[in-house]
């Protein structure tokens, strides 16, 4: 096993590494969120709304970090930054206003705002929503006026007022864990962008199953992780917040996560729960390594040139190879611990074959990384830990 002090693959340090990294990222996003110039968000928002937001979060310590940690809030911010970096100025301005509207919504529902403040001008969203508060209230953006007040959002449409408070629209959010929900709403502006060659975006759909069936399957997956990877399951309470359903498939399983949304996972529903368990671990791990890529280059050659990937049909940069290894080394650890415990699942057809497939894929990815990666200091710590865990697996089963 590795003696690395950075535990981002398996949180054997009580999640201290992940917690420290998360805190750094939240502080960065908070600075980005409050530091928007008037020419980006518009003069009215800058003059009327932003001062109220700044006053509220300065008065309540930690209020901004609590709101901005939510994927439906910071996803809009990070997508805005991405658009600006790619030179999409108009899209960046649109997303800047979307973000400020969503941030004001969550701060209002948090009860943080000190006084009532109106959203100035046209409404940038089709609904008032917040996964954290189980809120979804559609609105007519062309006709509505919105005011944010402590504990509520007031919508006025043609003289008809609706006061939106926590739990309004709660049927769209199904609990699957202490800190996780199956969300039947999604405000990710880049959900249609898909890097996988076998998929075309991530359109929200429960497919052929009811939400309760999704919740049951995800709950069973989380319970298996808690039984065999308790350190990882405990760490999930820090980061993992919402699952978005994207259909059912009895043959294949496809899942996704985005660097811009930490704690946000897309999944198809598969009848075999071991497959679901793998997918939850896999995408959760992507969330962790994505945090680091927000703050560090990780590898000097992370994005070019391209190399064969063990889990994709297309050549991938080392960034993708690392994501694959970092996602599936903990999956191999799950299989190992289940075998050590003699879990009844181990006797089922295909269990051993799948374990061997995961080990072989991991070995291929680790070999590519060992031969080609030029890591930064933080990247070296990640690789040392990853290699150490994988080497332990190969010593026993290789």
Walk me through this protein's architecture:
The chain has helices spanning 16-34, 38-41, 43-59, 63-68, 71-85, 89-109, 211-228, 230-239, 273-295, 318-341, 351-372, 377-397; strands at residues 117-118, 127-130, 135-138, 144-149, 152-157, 160-164, 173-175, 181-183, 242-248, 255-258, 261-269, 306-307, 316-317. The longest helix has 24 residues, at 318-341. The two termini are 15 Å apart. The mean pLDDT is 94. The chain contains twelve helices and 13 strands. The protein has a five-stranded mixed sheet. Helix 1 (16-34) crosses helix 9, helix 3 runs parallel beside helix 6 and helix 10 (318-341) runs antiparallel to helix 11 (351-372).
Enumerate the spans where pLDDT stays under 50 for 5 or more consecutive residues.
none
Percentage beta strand: 5-15%
User: What structural class do the secondary elements suggest?
Assistant: alpha+beta
Rg calc = 22 Å
Q: Can you write the helix and strand succession as a string?
A: HHHHHHEEEEEEEEHHEEEHEEHHH
Largest sheet descriptor: 5 strands, mixed
Q: Span between N and C termini?
A: 15 Å
Query: How many independent structural domains?
Result: 2
**Average pLDDT for all residues:** 94
| Beta strands, count | 13
> Percentage of helical residues?
40-55%
Q: Count of helices? A: 12
Q: Give the overall silhouette.
A: globular
- Strand order of the biggest β-sheet: 7-8-9-11-10
């Amino acid at each position: 096993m590795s003696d690395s002090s950075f535990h981002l693959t398996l949180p054997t340090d009580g999640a201290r590494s992940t917690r420290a990294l998360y805190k750094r990222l939240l502080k960065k996003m908070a600075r980005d969120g409050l530091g928007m110039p008037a020419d980006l968000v518009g003069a009215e928002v800058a003059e009327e709304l932003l001062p109220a937001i700044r006053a509220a979060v300065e008065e309540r310590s930690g209020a901004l970090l609590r709101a901005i940690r939510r994927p439906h809030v910071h996803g809009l911010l990070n997508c805005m930054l991405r658009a600006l970096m790619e030179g999409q100025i108009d899209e960046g301005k649109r997303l800047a206003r979307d973000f400020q509207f969503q941030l004001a919504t969550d701060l209002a529902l948090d009860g943080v705002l000190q006084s009532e403040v109106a959203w100035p001008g046209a409404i940038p969203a089709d609904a008032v929503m917040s996964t954290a508060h189980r809120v979804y209230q559609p609105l007519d953006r062309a006709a509505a006026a919105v005011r944010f007040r402590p504990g509520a959002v007031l919508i006025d449409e043609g003289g008809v007022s609706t006061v939106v408070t926590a739990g309004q629209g709660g049927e769209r959010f199904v609990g699957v864990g202490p800190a996780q929900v199956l969300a039947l709403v999604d405000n990710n502006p880049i959900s249609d962008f898909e890097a996988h060659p076998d998929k075309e975006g991530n359109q929200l759909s429960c497919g052929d199953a009811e939400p309760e069936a999704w919740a049951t399957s995800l709950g069973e997956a989380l319970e298996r992780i808690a039984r065999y990877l308790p350190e990882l399951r405990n760490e999930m309470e820090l980061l993992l917040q919402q699952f978005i359903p994207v259909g059912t498939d009895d043959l294949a399983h496809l899942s996704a996560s985005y660097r811009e949304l930490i704690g946000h996972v897309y999944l198809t529903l598969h009848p075999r729960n071991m497959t679901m368990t793998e997918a939850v671990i896999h995408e959760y791990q992507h969330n962790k390594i994505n945090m680091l890529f927000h703050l560090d280059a990780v590898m000097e050659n992370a994005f070019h040139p391209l190399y064969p990937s063990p889990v994709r049909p297309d050549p991938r940069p080392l960034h993708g190879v690392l994501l694959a290894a970092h996602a599936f080394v903990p999956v191999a650890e799950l299989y190992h611990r289940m075998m050590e415990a003699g879990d009844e699942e181990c006797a089922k057809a295909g269990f051993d074959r799948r374990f061997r497939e995961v080990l072989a894929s991991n070995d291929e990815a680790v070999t590519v990384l060992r031969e080609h990666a030029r890591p930064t200091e933080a990247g070296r710590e990640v690789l040392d830990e990853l290699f150490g865990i994988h080497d332990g697996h190969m010593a026993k089963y290789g």
